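Researcher: Structure prediction, please.
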Amino acid sequence: MDQQVKIPEFITHYYLPDKQPFLNLSDLSDEAKRPVLEDLEQRRLAGKMKRYFPDWYFPQRKEAESNLFEACVAKGGQPKRKAPHYFTLGRSKGIEMGYNHNFKTVELPISLIEKEVLFTIGDTLWTFSKSYTSQVTWENEWYQGKLYNYQETKEILTQLNLDVENPASLKKYKTPCVEALIWSDEILNQALQAIGFTSL
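Model: Predicted structure follows.
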């Protein structure tokens, strides 16, 4: 019999060590986004990070975030932003590899924001949008493409026996990570102040 998985009680936001946290590309105009993307590409070419942004990325992300917004409203949320602030449930070794293990984090106890945070099992870029590239085909499993509160997330992870901090377990369930979404700068700032972190 499988041992019951341990569900993290915190969420993690990753960011570049020489940048501020919670800098969301979706908040930028196309003009403002251009130099940021050029900088990120130079970092990738220099081996400082592995993440890249092909032409199809932003159209797909725009669709995914539109669907996320609608799902948040349908779940009873009151989103104050067009795109959420992104976290992971627990730590994500996949994201840490994407940053080439050179990053900083902000960790928030779920007890501070449990009523305000929603979770999605899998990468929202794929689970909340059709694929915009012929190189990747994607079909959601029953637990993907939906938003859950923390209790619902724990129940599903326990049912699947999915360990969010174990790469082999994540791969088995087509789940790079469990994303956590906060849709309000005010709620995020309150949580940051509670842990003594500089607010936005």
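Model: The chain has a mean pLDDT of 93.
Researcher: Thanks, that helps.
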